[in-house]
Amino acid sequence: MKYPGGIIQKDAPKNVSYDNRGMDLENDINQSNEYYRDKNIAFIYKKPTPIQITKVDYNKRGAVIKEAYFKEPSTTDYNGLYRGKYIDFEAKETLSKTSFPLSNIHKHQILHLKNMYLNGGIAFLIVRFVKLNKTFILLGQDLISFIESNSRKSIPLDYFLEKAYLIEEKYIPRLDYLKVIDELYGGELNGK
Amino acid sequence: MKYPGGIIQKDAPKNVSYDNRGMDLENDINQSNEYYRDKNIAFIYKKPTPIQITKVDYNKRGAVIKEAYFKEPSTTDYNGLYRGKYIDFEAKETLSKTSFPLSNIHKHQILHLKNMYLNGGIAFLIVRFVKLNKTFILLGQDLISFIESNSRKSIPLDYFLEKAYLIEEKYIPRLDYLKVIDELYGGELNGK
Known about the structure:
The structure is a homodimer.
Chain A: H1 25-38, E1 42-46, E2 51-59, E3 62-70, E4 78-82, E5 85-94, E6 99-101, H2 107-118, E7 122-129, E8 134-139, H3 140-148, E9 154-156, H4 157-163, E10 165-166, H5 177-185
Helix pairs in contact in A: 2-3
């Protein structure tokens, strides 16, 4: 694992060029993934929400689910393929200005991220500190390293500033997170 | 792409060691994926069924979905990570003894499989000819090659016998499809 020092950015982008109303992290990621797919850059999808269906009716238009329950996800929300590499991540927002509460991620999602990088995938968290207007990539390795060496229930912002990578926010793609992946893993990725 | 001739098996496994009742292809794959995960071999999951939720009620036990509709999947059902490689496939059964109807797969799933192998993933179909008791891996490349050079609406069994790879069925894992992937892609996979 290489950590090119130049990528660690400690300054927030002060001016974001779009209006923030209704543009949450999930929308930004979905729009970016759509852009990556349209441009044939990467094929990364959000998994459907897992549900347990308990009742289905059939009418003229087809099947209608009449009762179902949300299930706890067993993996992360996003995965896909980028230049020959398996990509896997979870995305979370926090309103805290000082730390990211680990209660935001399920234990089996953390284990999943660990399995992913141990098996040759690129695994990370995307964490947005909403009130700071900063969105970071924290690599799975650094997430696990924090958890395994700390009893804290949240990851302080300082840890992000030290270990994570700031994602550039712009008009399109809104959240160019693969740029960070390029800089970190460029040598391992298939040529374009 | 290598096609080791030795892998093309033209004989069906005549005796299957388990009782077939209620064991359909999806169950076999899910059980195999569970085995692979338990043994830390591969991390391949079935994606949740995509649905459009239109009505949710909240009661003491939490949220209950009261109305939802099945959506057409935009990708394949299964993907994951195996020894550093991105794996992506769709699984289908057919009752036909002579051909696999292409109407079984959505157009955008076919395009998706093409995007996957073009971008360095391992993409394939698992097709079970139920009445023949044979389950094949047909690589995405060979699927697309057939579609692009044929106007036929189904792939004849002969094409499977010539181009596809028979998956060994056994007690555990029920459908050892990664064995075929090992034989085909061994040199590209991360060491165990």
